[in-house]
Amino acid sequence: MLLTIQFGLAVVLLELLRLVGTIRLDPLQLDIAKVWFPVNMVFVAMNVTGFYALMSVSAGMFTVLKNLANIVTILGDWYFFGKNYSWHVWACLGLMVLSAALGGWSDLSFSRSGYAWQMVNCVLTAAYSLTLSSVVRRFFGAPPRAVPASPKARGDFTEEESQVAATGQKRLSEADTGEQMWCCSTLSAIR
């Protein structure tokens, strides 16, 4: 019920902002809605399982266990998209697993159903991330953290944005993954 209220409120607020003229919403296109539908369904399922997990698991333990979703996401990136990660990333993931194990071991309010919901939530969190990545790849034809090949060719960038995007592309070709994420999020913020 709470989820329905939250999502309904978001729709109402967006519609009010559109009516006031603060934002512009594109009309609904069925073909685009079909592509994004699985992403939204996984998102809703992720939120629902998170609510059920929080009924039995403390918020702190929920956060620690939620980090396990990163492992499933990285394994999915490797399996589905052929992405490789350095040993530094794997070492950090090892520490996350250790912290989850130690947290679970010392959890006085252990609930089998709460942990089960949390594990399902971790799988759905990873599924959401991977599904989102897949849809973005389908729309833009590039890895989700990459800048489109020719921003000017799209025709919707100003001259200044084109210059920033070109600089970002140069940096992407010279940068490691962390810098790529920073660079692309900076370009996204400009848009």
TrEMBL record:
Report how it sits in the membrane.
Multi-pass membrane protein
Q: Which InterPro entries does the UniProt record give?
A: EmrE-like, TPT_transporter
Q: Which GO terms describe its cellular component?
A: membrane
Its keywords, alphabetically, are: Membrane, Transmembrane, Transmembrane helix
- Transmembrane regions: 42-65, 85-103, 115-136
UniProt key word Cell division = no
Tell where it localizes.
Membrane
Is RNA-binding a UniProt keyword of this protein?
no
PANTHER family with a match to the protein in the record: SOLUTE CARRIER FAMILY 35
Task: Output this protein's name.
Answer: Sugar phosphate transporter domain-containing protein
User: What organism does the UniProt record list as the source?
Assistant: Gonium pectorale
